[in-house]
Amino acid sequence: MSDGAQFRQVSPPVRLYQRIVEQIEEAIARGDLKPGQRLPSERELVAQFGASRPTVREALRVLESNGLVRSRQGDPNGPEILPFSSAGLTKEMTRLVQFDNVSMAELISFRMILDGSASLLAARLRSEEELSAMERTLAVMADAIEAGYEEFSKADVAFHEVVAQASRNSLIEVCNLVVRGAVLSLISDKLAHAPNSTALMRESLHHHREVLEAIRAQDGPAAARISRRDLYDYYAGYVPENEQGPLLALVDDEET
Amino acid sequence: MSDGAQFRQVSPPVRLYQRIVEQIEEAIARGDLKPGQRLPSERELVAQFGASRPTVREALRVLESNGLVRSRQGDPNGPEILPFSSAGLTKEMTRLVQFDNVSMAELISFRMILDGSASLLAARLRSEEELSAMERTLAVMADAIEAGYEEFSKADVAFHEVVAQASRNSLIEVCNLVVRGAVLSLISDKLAHAPNSTALMRESLHHHREVLEAIRAQDGPAAARISRRDLYDYYAGYVPENEQGPLLALVDDEET
DNA sequence: CGCTTGCAACTGGCCTGACCAGTAAGCTCA
DNA sequence: TGAGCTTACTGGTCAGGCCAGTTGCAAGCG
């Protein structure tokens, strides 16, 4: 091989539809296009981009599948710019779980990490309103124990949601949302039909109260520890014995 | 309003291209289509799905943008099924950072959480080979200090990669990858031109060694603590003073 | 005068058919 | 046997068209 000239990797030609996607994505990222605003009609876009309608449509379908815009047949205002949503992230995360055979143990480990960290941060950053919001969700949980698993689960989710918000970290919030959804979609029916579900719910409520008290006391490490332990108690039964190592590591090791 | 009959919400009709996407996605999820295999040609798919070519193409463009398949013009074998990649997740996560204005502080907090947890788990689960792989990357880092920031950063990334793998949790691995990429893409040039970059690199290397020793000693909490502190020292300078609270919470609170 | 109704002018969803450029396998010919 | 060309495909893109759905407005109704 001769030295001297350095060659760059050649890249395949960029498809036309891709450039259209890029332009619109950039416009949204720049803020030129805000949620709720409308894109010109397809035929108008054809004129502006100088491409054919199928090409423009390919671009719109990609944007649509990414959750950036939505087209409705007959709408004279044109495609709508959608507000940001974590739907795409959720889809990708779910894909990861399906194709990359992520195990239940990994999923729950991750949830313990996220939820523990959310509690830790919430303990330091929570406002008074957030504290009372947490209290309200606990009250709803208490009432829901008799209403059945469905209701209880909804209130449970709401509590964790408030905690995640109080952590002031939207990455934690979104990832937690996604992982929680993935876990529930895998075993919610098992939980619903657990023989001793009332006892489980009661215990879970108790744990949640402890977490809340730790957050109120601004004791982050305790809040984190209790959160993780709660999740462990609640879910460990659904993880094979030989995969429980990581879960135990998360419960034990942070204790002092 | 009369009571009696209850009506369900009507859902918008599912677009044709969407159903094609679903079918192909399912086939991949089921394992009927494995990476490396080929899809029939567009014209063949047109026949099989009974849809027109533009419609089939819309579906293929969506799959392509999601990283599931790749089409190459002229390839007589048809579109290729791609192996799973976290590219889609990365894209979504990047979108989250861009559109949902995630701050540098949030990004680094999240990185501290992920990396700390990875170290914690790695301390318990690491194999001997992984330990020596970590050692090798540290050796490369040491050599790279003089070669400049570029090389050093690459070795640095490799170390964290090995640790993440040793945590045996692909969710941590992927999220860490993504967040690391996002952070670096935001400030890698600043790091590269830091006035005292050599000193910084030397200190970072020292911290990494400490992490490795904690992992070797199977002391998870220590490994996690040191990981977080290392990241804090390395990146805190790029976070505004008034946003450092969460970072400090992650560094301090877990110490005992 | 206010409300409903029906219509018309758009919209996007989908299709047909066509042309061009790129690829690779097979064939030809030295 | 091997190098080069040909050919039969591939995907990329376009033009034009039909249908169904949405909306706004104007005409018609009470």
Q: Total helix count of chain A?
A: 11
Strand order of the biggest β-sheet of chain A: 1-2
How many independent structural domains of chain A?
Answer: 2
Protein chain pair with the most extensive contact, residues per chain = A-B, 56 and 56 residues
Structural class estimated from helices and strands of chain A: mainly alpha
The first-to-last residue Cα distance of chain A is: 60 Å
Q: CATH topology of the largest domain in chain A, anyone?
A: Four Helix Bundle (Hemerythrin (Met), subunit A)
C-alpha-based Rg of chain A, rounded: 24 Å
Dominant shape of chain A: elongated
Oligomeric nature of the chains:
homodimer
Q: How would you describe this protein?
A:
The structure is a homodimer of 256-residue chains. Chain A is mainly α. Chain A has two domains: 16-81, Winged helix-like DNA-binding domain superfamily/Winged helix DNA-binding domain (Arc Repressor Mutant, subunit A, Orthogonal Bundle), CATH 1.10.10; 87-255, Four Helix Bundle (Hemerythrin (Met), subunit A) (Up-down Bundle), CATH 1.20.120.530. Chain A is 69% helix and 2% strand. Chain A has eleven helices and two strands; from the N terminus they run αααββαααααααα. Chain A has a two-stranded antiparallel ribbon. Chain A is elongated. The mean pLDDT of chain A is 87. Chains A and B meet through α1, α3, α4, α5 and α8 of A and α1, α3, α4, α5 and α8 of B. The structure holds a DNA duplex (30 and 30 nucleotides).
